[in-house]
Amino acid sequence: MPLRGLLFDFDGLIVDTESPSYESWNEIYREHGQELDLAQWADVISNHDSPFDALENLRLLVGDADFDAQAAAARRNSRKNEITDLTELLPGIRRYVDEASSMGLKLGIASGSSRKWVTRHLARLGIDGHWACIRCRDDVERSKPDPETYLALLDCLGVDAAEAIALEDSPNGIASAKAAGLLVVAVPNSLTRLLDLSAADLVVESLSDLPLTELIRIAGR
Predict the structure, then answer these.
(1) Residues with Cβ < 8 Å from 31, sequence gap 6 or more?
(2) Residue in 26, 22, 29, 27 with CA at minimum distance from that of residue 67
(3) Is 85 one of the annotated active-site residues of the chain?
(4) pLDDT tier for residue 50 given thresholds of 50, 70 and 90
(5) pTM value?
(6) Nearby residues of 48 by Cβ (< 8 Å), 6 or more positions away
(7) Is 186 strand, coil or helix?
(8) Where are the strands (E) in 49-197, listed by range?
(9) What is the mean pLDDT of residues 193-220?
(10) CA atoms within 13 A on the CB side of 108
(11) Are the C-beta atoms of 165 and 201 separated by less than 8 Å?
(12) Catalytic residue list contains 11
């Protein structure tokens, strides 16, 4: 089947919001003489329904005495937004969007974040007008790693899974896309390159190193 759709994750794939999310918590952890375990945090990436609670975990590590959970959460969220608002598009993203548009491919975003978060950053980065459809955690009952987000996006685009490629950066995102029947290309960022992405059909170090036409050829499309 010819390729008709190119589906993007958002956090960590279009823009690296995942490193600020982790590092802002780790700043708070280090203030209390602790380190946020990346292996524990990995379940949170692209998984809004993860049972891991970084604030509760820190409280358990340091004990209740003199731990102001509300203040710690507020400072962390402020710091996360401060760092994230300085981020730029990850390498190769703008070129991929432009090339895919010129090829007539339908572009979509499947995100485990809220629509407000995604659209705010797309507008900030100047690429908000390129997407035929966006599906976020607000639009589904079960977020990633469940396939519902990708299935909803495919339905919105009117594209079959066999006619699309998904670009992801995390194990949960890869699991979601694979369960939806998609061919998945993993593009790790500075944080997720430390995780197991072997479930993807192809792992690419950076989209800036691989033109879209070449990726399509390698993917057998």
Answers:
(1) none
(2) 29
(3) no
(4) confident
(5) 0.87
(6) 112, 113, 137, 143, 144
(7) strand
(8) 106-110, 133-135, 164-168, 183-186
(9) 90
(10) 28
(11) no
(12) yes
